Amino acid sequence: MHSLSRIALALVPLLHLLTAVEAAAGIAVSPLQQRVVVKPGRSGEFSLTIRNVRRSPQDRRQAVKVEVVDFAVSSDGKLSFGEEMAHSRSAVAWITLDADEFVLDPGKARTVGGKVRAAVNGDGDYWAAVMVTPGGTSRPGPGVQVVVRMASGVFVHVARRNYTERGSVIAQEVILPQFTAQQNPAAEPQNEGGADELNQALRIRAELKNEGLVAFVASGTASLLLDGRKRVASVPLHASRSRILPGDVRRFEGVLATPLPAGDYTVGLVFQCGSQEGRKAVNRSELNISADLARLWSQMGTVQASAGLHVEPETIERELVPGRFTTGSVSVTNRGLGTVRIRCRLEAAEFDSDGSGAEGAPEGPFRLLAPRDWLALNPTEFTLAPRTQRSVLCHLNVPRDARPGNYSRSIVMETESAGLDGQQDADLRVVPVHITVEERM
Amino acid sequence: MKRLMFIVFMAALLVPLSSRSAFGAIPPADPATCAISCSVVEIMEWAGDFSAITLVDITSLTDQPTGSAARNLITNGNCSIAADNTATAQLSAAAATLTTDYGLAFDGDGITDTGGTTVSYTDYSTFLTVVGEGDVTHVSPNGVVQVTLSVRASVSGSSAPDQASYSATQTLTATWG
Fold it and tell me: Which of A47, A144, A312 to mutate to test the interface with B (most CBs of B within 10 A)?
């Protein structure tokens, strides 16, 4: 064996770039996404705020480079940027920025204006990203340089006509539960690394393609019908990024941890593509659960429990003056092994978890019902993969003419867990939102 | 005399009424207040500097020097980190290359605190390409997550690579969630 000569490796400090400017505090970008609606052949505007955040007296001037780049979304929802991601619905050529490279002093911000001029034959949705790179152009050097940057999405809607969201299921597969050889001597040897708990669940995968001209948010459910007739189970389908751009394909997966009886099943997929007016995308496939598998699954499998869903906090409390805008958030954690769909809505304050109005007077000070337009939820519907968490933002906007007092509304979350029909818990979680509107000075 | 005393008396009455009297009490405060409000929209920021990282020299075929650097990502919403999976991110010197693996860690798990799932060492070409990797879940009210990028170098194949100074550039892009 040859003895190796020394190979020097070094990682240099991050945030390189422009010789005239040294690395500094932080570069903040806002907003992260925006939508511009234009008519064909017409222009629209947007802006991006970039700030050199001052955190210490040692913070220095920071060079910033901004440019419009293409991006693509993979079937798994991963974003990739660059010229090689150019596509037929790129908005890069339509967008001009009023700045490309500038220097920001600590504590200073700059609003970069953008103009979108849609093509005359534009029709539907197009997209691009504004890439903000602190420090400007990177310099090559020894070792490993680490570049950080931020991307802000610009989504252009060319409103030529009314659009209908259209999607189609282009692939579907079912992955049967797998158990170790010790558990099932007839089973194939497990892959290196062993089977994790998800391998002991039924997984349904589907690929949904956006066949239309506008983006939509998709939600899907897989139904299992025994002998093609009687529905015995339903499984919500999850994707990392449920908003699908025109021409894109997105992979969804549903996980059913509850053991199924032996038999022949039909797996029916139904996707809602966007609004209620959007068309549904459907597909079917066949599935057989053998007696051996059903027996093993029943012995080794894990039963999905609704207690696997954790919601916090129990209550949102805010004290505001009229004209104030703020947000609260509710964290929803799926601790179980199956996928779970959550639908959120706002209801009157006296709303009990069993779906009825609360009996008697609520605890605490008397509270008026907060007007519905004071609050908004985002998102209102989502699906959680096993062992994942998501926050629901509650935007609270108290109008300037609001009267001081105590107000209340409830965030109601309906959950639909993967499981057997009749055994699933129609779980309802309620998070009260208490708002104290103080005197305006 | 009486006239003079009357004048002095009237002056004494009028002085306290003057807000600028040198002999009267300091005028009461007249506070003026205004309500200030501002809205906070989605924000994302790479803050601070990655500290310098030095990997020890490779002196044998089995050496696998590692190094890491951390930086704060500030966000008030869910976001995601994408990596460069092109050859730019692989340690190379002219035509010679080294096996280059990257890892990512957060100081929060994305469930109890803002953060995400730790990514084990992965080849540069597939780093952060798996579903869920690089995703940062914001857990209110914590808007700061420390992101640690790790690098591991090793020899490709069974022959000694060229003696040289190897370099690479890894680009981490923070995006909307």
Answer: A144
